[in-house]
Design goal:
By secondary structure, the protein is an alpha/beta fold. The chain has 15 helices and 5 strands. The chain has a 5-stranded parallel β-sheet, sandwiched between helices. Helix 1 runs parallel beside helix 3 and helix 2 packs parallel to helix 5. It starts with a helix and ends with a helix.
Length: 386
């Protein structure tokens, strides 16, 4: 019965979204101020209307009736605020503009966020309700076809053995700048941290990856190491990133699974461009259509200069630089390396696409303070051991 009630409620919600969309169109025509805010709300309501129309085609038992009813209550309250007052028709006959947009820009942002939450819920229901449903075991089997370097990720024993996080109260300004970049909406999707050997690049990369992991699930990491088999090559980088993202985003994972079904060998392919387009860019575009949330998909790559495949490395950087809709896909790529990575084409990227931070340029007073904290910490550790 709950499923039937959910199906019936969807029809009601679809009708309400249609009314709200029509009302927003009226506001756009008759209200001179806030056209951008009105269009923001209208476009989200239209997207919700389209998703609900698709959801209505699912069997009633696969519809979350509670979510539909909650959405219906929310949209009813939204509709009431948008409906013109009774005196509007009279004033309009007198030639007066009586229609007034009832929301501030901040309130519109809140309404858009609320609608996005329902979009996420209903899109997930659509994903789970597809006719060719893939079991967890089959998903794992398909994802296992992707080449994966477990030693390269943040939580591996190899990475934890080689790298530590920054000590508290050290690298404060550097870390804050990078963390601010991870959440900003600027088109600069790549952050290049470069410095000489021993300047703490890997420590910073480890700290950033750990901080992002604590706040966001959409994180993929790869820590390179020269002369260490797969850790010194790019060939398995992209499939390893895909495997990590697939664990956290259902819509992204479903798109990746569809790609693997069509081409089971794509995860072992030596063609970086093909992997990038079919496993990274394509699924992200699909995921953004289904899940309009603004949470970025973040990649942390440490010691990229220790990659031995110069040709593949140059190709990888070229792919990043030539993806015009990288900002719209909300990909954030953090890279640490020695300065000589520039010879592989990094500095050929348009400056609008990346930030560059040079560790040697950090003020000496800050470096000295960090060194003092580090030495004090190490001395205390020695004392405790002996």
């Amino acid at each position: 019965m709950e499923g039937l009630a959910g199906a019936a409620s969807i029809i009601t919600v679809v009708e309400v979204t249609a009314k709200i969309g029509k009302l927003c169109g009226t506001y756009i025509r008759e209200v001179r101020h806030a056209p951008d805010d009105i269009e923001r709300l209208r476009s989200k309501v239209v997207a919700l209307h389209a998703v609900l129309m698709r959801l209505h085609k699912l069997p009633p038992s696969e519809i979350d009736a509670s979510a539909v009813q909650n959405c219906n209550k929310y949209l009813d309250s939204l509709l009431k605020r948008l409906e013109p007052k009774k005196q509007h028709s009279t004033m309009r006959r007198m030639g007066l503009r009586a229609l007034k947009w009832p929301f501030t820009s901040k309130e519109v942002g809140d309404q858009v966020q609320a609608i996005e939450q329902y979009l996420v819920i209903f899109n997930l229901s659509l994903q789970l309700g597809i006719s060719e449903r893939t079991t967890d075991a089959e998903q794992d089997r398909l994802l296992d076809k992707l080449a994966y370097v477990g030693e390269a990720i943040l939580t591996s024993y190899e990475t934890s053995r080689r790298h530590r996080q920054c000590l508290p109260s050290t690298r404060v300004d550097v870390l804050q700048q990078i963390m601010n970049w991870t959440v900003d909406t600027s088109p600069r999707c790549i952050f290049w941290l470069k410095g000489l050997a021993g300047t703490g690049k890997s420590t910073i990369a480890t700290t950033i990856a750990s901080s992002v992991k604590a706040k966001s699930s959409h994180l993929a990491t790869y820590f390179f190491k020269r002369g260490h088999s797969d850790l010194a090559h790019v060939r398995k980088l992209l499939p390893t990133i895909v495997r990590q993202w697939s664990r956290f985003s259902p819509s992204y994972r479903q798109s990746v699974l569809d790609v693997i079904k069509k081409d089971p060998n794509i995860g072992q392919s030596g063609d970086l461009r093909e992997q990038y387009e079919t496993l990274i860019v394509g699924p992200l575009r699909f995921s953004r259509q289904l899940d309009p949330s603004n949470e970025p998909f973040i990649i942390v790559m440490d010691a990229l200069d220790e990659c031995d495949d110069e040709t593949d490395l140059r190709m990888l950087l070229k792919l990043f630089a030539t993806t015009n809709d990288l900002p719209n896909l909300r990909i954030k790529i953090f890279v640490s390396s020695r300065p000589d990575l520039s010879r592989h084409g990094f500095e050929e990227m348009p400056s609008v696409f990346h930030y560059t931070m040079i560790l040697q340029d950090v003020p000496r007073a800050i470096v000295d303070s960090d060194i003092k904290i580090y030495l004090s910490h190490e001395l205390r550790a020695i004392q405790e051991r002996f």
